[in-house]
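=== Discrete structure encoding ===
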Amino acid sequence: MEVVKYFDENYHHLGDETLENIHKKGLWHETFHCWMVSKREEEWFVQLQIRSQSKQDFPNFLDVAVTGELLATERMQDGVKKIEAQLGLDLFFKELQFIGIIQDNIMSETTLNREFAHVYLYVTDQSLMDVYQIQKQDCQGMIEVPFSQLSDLLSEQKNVILGSGFIYDETGQRIEKQWPFSIDDMLPHQIAYYEQVFAGIASKLNK
């Protein structure tokens, strides 16, 4: 049974609760988010995960490269274990750049997910196609898209953009492809979340 800490809206710790009840009751809790970017031919690309078809909430949606609840027994440094578990990438915590702690509400038909998301950035020089060994239980593929175009999509300056990556089909075969997507294909984080994340990433990349 997974147990996490829960908080009030001002980030004061109130107690511990099972993850199932956290989502049922809509309690504020801590999560780890790692956005991943790479640079190719002087252009920055954002790497996103494609959520598994078997997910109860938001199957097949595009989301942050790595996400996960922080258990009551874990420290934020344990976020690198989530990166290894989900993508097969073995990193040191010091390789991540801290973006900030961002409050976010994600609503579905069955849950209200209220998060204090601890957001980090990892800059990689490795190809999306070569490096990742994904955990297919949670993620069915990865896609990358130019940072500037994704920013335009989320600010509604573009309606559709083109991404490229790979996806595993029902037989377990990996298929490399390109496909268009819109803001409706993205996990519905609050717009304020995306704005703060993208401003933070831009500031890190422009240093």
Remarks:
- The chain has a mean pLDDT of 93.
